[in-house]
Amino acid sequence: MTTKKVVLRFSAETADKPIIYHLVKDYDLIINILKAQINPHKEGTMVLEISGDKYDEGISFLEKQGILVQPLETEVVRNEQRCTSCGACSVHCPTQALYIERPSMDVRFDGEKCILCLMCLKICPVRAMEVRV
Amino acid sequence: MGVERTIKEINERIKKGKVVVLTAEEVIEKVKEKGIEETAKEVDVVTTGTFGPMCSSGVFLNFGHTSPRIKMQRVWLNNVPAYTGIAAVDAYLGATELPEDDPLNSDYPGEFRYGGGHVIEDLVARRPIRLKATGYGTDCYPRKEIETTITIDDINEAILFNPRNCYQNYNCAVNLSNKTIYTYMGTLKPNLGNANYSTSGQLSPLLKDPYFKTIGIGTRIFLGGGIGYVAWNGTQHFPTILKDEDGKELCASGGTLSVIGDLKKMSARWLVGTSFRGYGATLTVGIGVPIPILNEEILYYAAKTDEELFAPIVDYSDVYPNRKPGNLGYVSYAQLKSGKINLLGKEVPTAPLSSYPKAREIAHILKDWIQKGDFLLTEPVQNLPGPDSGLKGKVLN
């Protein structure tokens, strides 16, 4: 039985649905929540490891709920040459994967904390944040 | 009576390899340790630095003449138009210029991924640039169009000439409204979601010479990784001394520099094409200015710390765009750099738009140049107007 990693994106309307319950109970899937950033009535993200025979049915259930499902084959990386360490990204990163180290004021990126919200790609003034597939 | 020294004397010490140079950060530590009087005796030069988006930047280009000749009436570099209302094959490309087919903010907020600032970065990085020009044809300039590929080395001149750079101080921008706004101060989240600022504080050149005692026309500087000069005061040069509600003097604000230098000798590390979502394209420019410690008073200001330098907090949802008076108070750069400030009863996370680590690096590079004898200081040809000049911005009706 293979294990697949997926990123779920919730809109403000879908963020309060008990989807993990349904994936386990109705589709008999084994779920490992790797990362979750969920707040009621706000956009949210969850990274799951899923295995089980009814994987495809489970995914189509999620999509019918209006949840965007993306395979976790992508990662956000920082182009170290391009980054100027300005820090504009730091207040927009929801998990502090991008943060300013003090007192040096150097900008650091901790890929482990990244939930692929891709906000930094929009914010970074010099386009130093990239998606690697 | 404290120490007095001249720029000529400092240059003699540079040539003899005896000059003592500290960065603006280092001199702060020195003054804390030894005091102004002792430090002024020891230190000849303090180097400053800043690396931030500076919209009023651009480059004069001379492409060389074609055969037969063309009088370029319109010119595009990588699809970005440049101004050609000067001689036949001269043009000026501004940092905020955008391609004519850019969707701008029609799909709000626009991305502004490529503009004049990016062309300047591509030029200085020696990447090939697509050049297109059209003319109307004259007896002396018969050719009507040309399309070719150039690099910076193929053309006669590329002179960076930035009419307004190096702002002495700048607003800390916040958003009091209930929707996200997209500004030249970055994306500002609603209801005081973040506070953005854009000055290198205790490293920033004009904050360290508030009365323009040393920085003037002709001052040799670090510009974009090469050598540049102060050409004039910048546009909107309205130097003043900020005062708090009680009339207590805080620090300088409002001064600007116009700078010039040979783009061919600069580096893409220090001139970076920049995009602000929903606002536009620009250029991030690296500038470093040496401050000769001619006396104790100059050192006193050059050694000012982040705790002693302040930015006004301004609402960019209403007050700034509608040019309403007033601000939300002042905040020190030490507070801004801490990562959060308290404002209207709320803890607000802060973010810089200008890079403090790069500003520090510039101050160190300039220090290195001076110590090695590669960079001599210049006497200003003429001083710039200071806070006592009373210069103020006019309103356009």
Question: What does this entry look like structurally?
Answer:
The complex is a heterodimer of chains A (133) and B (397). The longest helix of chain A is centred in the middle third of the chain and has 10 residues, at 55-64. With 133 residues, chain A is an alpha+beta fold. Chain A is 18% helix and 32% strand. Helices cover 17% and strands 32% of the residues of chain B. Chain B has 6 helices and 28 strands. The longest helix of chain B has 19 residues, at 24-42. Classes of the chains: A alpha+beta (133), B alpha+beta (397).
Count of DSSP strands of chain A: 8
Strand residues, percent of chain A: 25-35%
Which class of the largest domain in chain A in CATH terms? Alpha Beta
Give the topology string of chain A: H per helix, E per strand. EHEEHEEEEHE
Query: Which term fits the overall shape of chain A?
Result: elongated
The oligomerization state is heterodimer
**Structure classification of chain B:** alpha+beta
3D shape of chain B: globular
Compute the gyration radius of chain B: what is it? 22 Å
- What share of the residues of chain B does DSSP label as strand, in percent? 25-35%
Helix content of chain B: 10-25%
Work out the helix count of chain B.
6
Biggest interchain interface, per-side counts: A-B, 22 and 31 residues
Q: Mean pLDDT score of chain A, rounded? A: 90
Overall helicity of chain A: 10-25%
